[in-house]
Design a protein that fits this description.
The chain has eight helices and seven strands; from the N terminus they run E-H-E-H-E-H-E-H-E-H-E-H-H-H-E. With 253 residues, the protein is of the alpha/beta class. The chain has a single domain, classed as NAD(P)-binding Rossmann-like Domain (Rossmann fold, 3-Layer(aba) Sandwich). It comes from Agarivorans albus MKT 106. InterPro entries: KR_dom (IPR057326), NAD(P)-bd_dom_sf (IPR036291), Sc_DH/Rdtase_CS (IPR020904), SDR_fam (IPR002347).
Length: 253
């Protein structure tokens, strides 16, 4: 029986690059995301290398998630790896200028969505001899920065949820990792900047940011670790990125 990976957000960025890499290694793929036409095209391409099942999925909808998992085709029922990758940041305004609707969307996607998918797949994962959950957190889980408010807090949830899952799953064969990337070039910032290409270029131009393939390599490496190893968390930045000074605001006497 071959390994089977369930990827959320497989239409772009890390999820897309991971789908391609797992396909090269002969994994069965369950590819999900909202943009079904992209999934169909990807399934067509990767179907030459491995078995692919794809389905439109909005992770925010717990019923849709549960139905999709319940209706997995026979060949795809034994999921051995879950890549909880779907997520987004919206806006860079400071907290007092941020949109409440954007805050809700980030919480609904990054927190509720990730919880929905995890809950639906745990009964399957715990039946496997060895399985993996890789949760896409962020350096924003660990470090504050201006404009990160709800995005960073939602990713801090992902990091802590990952550790707490480990406590309950220890001994079950299910490993859990919180993967915490820094600046990575994908549609992520285009989404965050509301489609503003100029801002996107300003951020990524000459930045030597991580590429989706770099993250896919790490995800694959995590999943392929021997059964007795659990990488609890892994924070990764491009070598061009580091922390900066603490901010001290001077006040007039
Ligand atoms: N890029 C970075 O710098 C960076 C750094 C640290 C962590 N991360 C995290 O890594 C993950 C992947 O990011 P990325 O850089 O690959 O971004 P991306 O290229 O924008 O990909 C995000 C993926 O999430 C999916 N998605 C968004 N909302 C969804 C929803 N409601 N239901 C289902 N799928 C949804 C999108 O698919 P559809 O739109 O087709 O649904 C897309 O496939 C995210 O969780 C992000 O927070 C990114």
């Amino acid at each position: 029986m071959s390994n089977c990976v369930f990827i959320t957000g497989a239409t772009s960025g890390f999820g897309l690059a991971s789908a391609k890499l797992f396909a090269q290694h002969g994994y069965k793929l369950i590819l999900t995301g909202r943009r079904i036409e992209r999934l169909a095209q990807l399934a067509d391409e990767l179907g030459q290398q491995c078995q692919v099942h794809y389905a439109s999925l909005d992770v925010r909808d717990s019923q849709q998630v549960a139905q999709l998992v319940a209706a997995l085709p026979e060949d795809f029922k034994q999921v051995t790896a879950l890549i909880n990758n779907a997520g987004l940041a919206l806006g860079t305004d400071p907290c007092d200028k941020a949109s409440l609707a954007d805050w809700h969307t980030m919480i609904d996607t990054n927190v509720t969505g990730l919880v929905n998918v995890t809950h639906a797949l745990l009964p399957i994962l715990t039946q496997q001899t060895v399985a993996s959950v890789v949760n896409l957190a962020s350096i924003a889980s660990n470090w504050p920065y201006p404009g990160s408010h709800v995005y960073g807090a939602s990713k801090a949830f992902v990091a802590q949820f990952s550790r707490n899952l480990r406590c309950d799953l220890v001994g079950s064969g299910v490993r859990v990792t919180s993967l915490e990337p820094g600046l990575s070039e994908s549609e992520f910032s285009l989404v965050r900047f509301g489609g503003d290409q100029e801002k996107y270029q300003q951020l990524y131009g000459n930045s030597n940011a991580l590429q989706p393939e770099d993250i896919a390599n790490i995800i694959y490496w995590l999943v392929e670790q021997p059964a007795h190893i659990n990488i609890n968390s892994l924070e990764v930045m491009p070598s061009s990125q580091a922390w900066n000074n603490f901010n001290v605001v001077k006040q007039a006497n």
